[in-house]
Amino acid sequence: xxxxxxxxxxxxxxxxxxxxxxxxxxxxxxxxxxxxxxxxxxxxxxxxxxxxxxxxxxxxxxxxxxxxxxxxxxxxxxxxxxxxxxxxxxxxxxxxxxxxxxxxxxxxxxxxxxxxxxxxxxxxxxxxxxxxxxxxxxxxxxxxxxxxxxxxxxxxxxxxxxxxxxxxxxxxxxxxxxxxxxxxxxxxxxxxxxxxxxxxxxx
Amino acid sequence: xxxxxxxxxxxxxxxxxxxxxxxxxxxxxxxxxxxxxxxxxxxxxxxxxxxxxxxxxxxxxxxxxxxxxxxxxxxxxxxxxxxxxxxxxxxxxxxxxxxxxxxxxxxxxxxxxxxxxxxxxxxxxxxxxxxxxxxxxxxxxxxxxxxxxxxxxxxxxxxxxxxxxxxxxxxxxxxxxxxxxxxxxxxxxxxxxxxxxxxxxxxxxxxxxxxxxxxxxxxxxxxxxxxxxxxxxxxxxxxxxxxxxxxxxxxxxxxxxxxxxxxxxxxxxxxxxxxxxxxxxxxxxxxxxxxxxxxxxxxxxxxxxxxxxxxxxxxxxxxxxxxxxxxxxxxxxxxxxxxxxxxxxxxxxxxxxxxxxxxxxxxxxxxxxxxxxxxxxxxxxxxxxxxxxxxxxxxxxxxxxxxxxxxxxxxxxxxxxxxxxxxxxxxxxxxxxxxxxxxxxxxxxxxxxxxxxxxxxxxxxxxxxxxxxxxxxxxxxxxxxxxxxxxxxxxxxxxxxxxxxxxxxxxxxxxxxxxxxxxxxxxxxxxxxxxxxxxxxxxxxxxxxxxxxxxxxxxxxxxxxxxxxxxxxxxxxxxxxxxxxxxxxxxxxxxxxxxxxxxxxxxxxxxxxxxxxxxxxxxxxxxxxxxxxxxxxxxxxxxxxxxxxxxxxxxxxxxxxxxxxxxxxxxxxxxxxxxxxxxxxxxxxxxxxxxxxxxxxxxxxxxxxxxxxxxxxxxxxxxxxxxxxxxxxxxxxxxxxxxxxxxxxxxxxxxxxxxxxxxxxxxxxxxxxxxxxxxxxxxxxxxxxxxxxxxxxxxxxxxxxxxxxxxxxxxx
Amino acid sequence: xxxxxxxxxxxxxxxxxxxxxxxxxxxxxxxxxxxxxxxxxxxxxxxxxxxxxxxxxxxxxxxxxxxxxxxxxxxxxxxxxxxxxxxxxxxxxxxxxxxxxxxxxxxxxxxxxxxxxxxxxxxxxxxxxxxxxxxxxxxxxxxxxxxxxxxxxxxxxxxxxxxxxxxxxxxxxxxxxxxxxxxxxxxxxxxxxxxxxxxxxxxxxxxxxxxxxxxxxxxxxxxxxxxxxxxxxxxxxxxxxxxxxxxxxxxxxxxxxxxxxxxxxxxxxxxxxxxxxxxxxxxxxxxxxxxxxxx
Lengths: 203, 812, 295
Fold this sequence. Notes:
The complex is a heterotrimer of chains A (about 200), B (about 800) and C (about 300). Chain A has about 200 residues and is mainly alpha-helical.
């Protein structure tokens, strides 16, 4: 077994993830009347409105922490371009046609950066929406703009999030286990992150 | 008001001047709006400031404060020159055709005939009609007339001559109103009489903006003359309409809130009235009319009113044998008006004061003098619902703790009742006596004001009983037959005021039933008929209006005898047919041989038109007075424009005689006056706001919220000159004192060109002082506006000149 | 128009904010909707409506400070729905007018606040035209503030609820006129059916054009928000902005409209498409196998 995610990384991931999930659920409640029941089961509209920005802040802070940990690993490298060019083979499970990946493959990196920039957009637009009453009247136009950006950014992260969950839970067995326990099998590592495997094991 | 609030809806034209009804009478102003909405009535607003009234007007004219007579005089000239007068009305219903004494001279040089330079008084014997006895001066019983109005001595020609000087150019020079704008306003107002048409009616609406001048009475007279010339008096939608400033100030006037009146406007006895008959002879007019005409001369009934009043006051103690207890009545030896009282107190002649229902210090003028006067008094009793400036005069700004200790005045503060805690009537501007019931009980130790007064009276009476005194009879014999002597019910008082037949004990049906033989009693003859055997007519609440003219005959009760429009005989032509058939008020019913209609005829009901009885039944002449003979007014039979006591320029009509020569100026070391050119070069006027009520509402958070702080309205240009921005603190100083407030810089007051001189006006709302919510929190400068105003009064009504005095303005 | 004729029983709901599925009573048709008419040309700025509004709604009087104007304060507040705006306007020829406009919610037929609100039942539009905020359902997000082209909804930072004029729905529902109408001394304020008020307004505007110098008088009932249930008669319909920022062609802000329109559908498509896509992908390709490379 190889240690893929030390304790610190797992904590960080799940903090970010759970915070995101809460914001997602409450955010979706505010997004559509058909999902307002989400807010109701999470404690009601007003409390959802109260916690959403606070948990959102937790999400962003955890994401910044995550960035400190992983920023080296998620930097786009020279091979990533090629990986992305061949991503369709990755999608069709023809992994032998896909260049080997490091700790994170380029698809994961794209996901990461989508979430990263999404989080920045969400936090700034969210700040305006948190205390819109503090916005001077002459800057009133910023309010709808913030809502617009917040929702747009949220939709981008939702798209990425759907793929992330699908990949982690369904498409790449062992991923959830890795994020829960921190370890992967050699086979898993070799199969999905061969460069990282080599680097880690020297094999 | 000659007419009434609701009647304003009938008008075609409004001249609102010397008043700001939208702000100070917002509920009544609805009728002006109704007239605009339903009749396309036009509204002209003439004011030193662009007010909230002006904001709804068709035409706004900015006038220099105090220049009103010049404007109205110019209007009279315009109406005459352009034949916009109601000829038939003027000839038959006014004294225009009466011939005036040969010796009469109008005030072309600033004074009328008979002026005595030495003591600034008039010998008024030449102010009379031809053919009169001169000693004692009285009007002739048979007046000579020239119905062609051609005789140079007839009133009309004299009037024409008098106002010929009030040309549009002169109006511009005095008032600051550009000639063209004046002509436009004059044309618009008089347009209702274009081509001799008598159907339309115009109203003139005013308030204390006219009265509060050293020539206030004469401004109102000018308006009345203009309305007579235009045939607007007595007409629905016409009249001269005073908007009274408090809910019951009309009632206070009716019941003799003035030293020279007794209830019902009976003239008070003077020292020279040695007995009842002499008094009656002096104050009961004899009719004075052309032989061919009739005059009802209703004041000829004065003895009936006077005897009934004395019977009401002294009961059995007033008998024929003792001349109806005439000796009990105080005799007036001098003037006891507001400024006189404080002057006397300041001079040490008055040693105590009971101040009920008013804030003596704040309502000024020259508040600092009033404060200093109270410091010299032995005692002061204040009955109010708030701690106010008067009861706290000893801690006015500038009084140090040491000085406070030195003040020996004993101050008693009595907790009175608010208006919502009392039953009783309010008499509104329309002369309606409207009964209202207490809404809430008095809080805490507070008592009804009249109960406090009753207890004071009973205690004083006990003292007289025990100790005798110089002249106890008037006190001991005063009628006091109330069920609870210490707290008379106001319905008992109201019934007493209406009066009763002493033989039958029945309430009197009206003042026609009053007698001078001691068989009737009546506390106020003009209110007789308000509480009859049929009950309290003041409590009627039927708002139906069969005529659609707003008469509402079964709503409350208006004096006299429920007449809604005074002098309504003048709403008909000489033959007794309404001038405007669409607004028929009353008319002559030939079949029944009497006057009838939608209003109670203000006339002798069975006097047929052919008898030519004059519609102005309260005048001995029976007609309206364009020329006011003899002692009617102290300052002249025709109003003449005089500069306010303090003014930026000399009088353009007669620079050597700038001011009203008979205006009363108080003279003490505290009465200082600015003269032209000594640096006080800004005209200042004072007024009230919608959001506040006098000096009360600074104690009410609601009103304080709406307008929280004192301010001064300053023209943009003046503010720019002085480097003042909106919200800056400013200091206003007059020759007497200073006032501190914040600046409200506005477009609504514009600089004026007065005879080539650039003159600025500023305006100050009066509502603040040194007690109130913000005052007590130390959030206002705690100065009083009336510290600035001068103690100069109108010679007829003794109203102080709160409008149009001179100040300096600087950044504080 | 009397109060009794207007109430006709309880208030019936037409639209509810943030509500999934059909709105109870949505298809109820009423013969009329109600409207308040503010004839600005007869407003005297007495502020009786301000006080009546406070007193009816039970709000406290507040601390204000002098601000070089007769206007009580700069803007309406969560507990001050009704504010007369005072504006001095000097025309090119030097003629001064002092414009006083009672500001407050206009009760749009197409309310931007309601469109923007995510909270189920926080904003309710009644079949009679009244747009009412129900604070017990308000989540305090203030989207309504962004949705309103008139800057009406105001936030109470303490309770985190948004408030605005209710057109006295509690009074109207009981057959009474709104409190401001009752207090107005000049008859500048009228209340009745929208049709009647519209007719009255048009007549008054025509009268002004014909008989006064206000030749551009007109009725403010802006179509951009579907018309309003509070209308103005203005001296000059061409320049509503002179009356303290009344917009000339108000509409729900474009961003709000995109947000609640195309963006919503795009988002729905993306989310549903993403989930469906993943499912189909799984069925088609299944999970990755380790050792696909054979090692």
